[in-house]
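Supplementary Note 3. Input sequence used for the single-chain structure prediction.
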Amino acid sequence: MLDGMDIDALTETVVSRILIEGESARSVAYELAGRLAVECPERPALSLALPFCMAASALEEVLGGGEDARQAALDAWRIAALIGADALTLKVQSRPDTIAELWTQWRSGDEVFGTGTGA
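The predicted structure, written as discrete structure tokens, is reproduced below.
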């Protein structure tokens, strides 16, 4: 599982890239999944959702006054939910519920994450 420093670093990355750099949460999730699939392939797939949940919460609570922050938070919440659904799908299909398997699923033509770009 992710330790506190990993979670903080990933959360900061999510906030920075979706709020400051203007990337979609989907493209950030795709890139992070690819990186984590190499660095720590056996981590649970659902662990990818946590930084997006924490980023969304921080954006709502700390920066929630602005429209950009609200939109970034909504995007992060939506992607966290989709990551959770994909992680559950792996379990239901009796596949390993690891970040590496999630990455494999996404690269093989997932409807949402299959291309890794866009909203």
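The radius of gyration is 14 Å. DSSP finds five helices and no strands in the chain.
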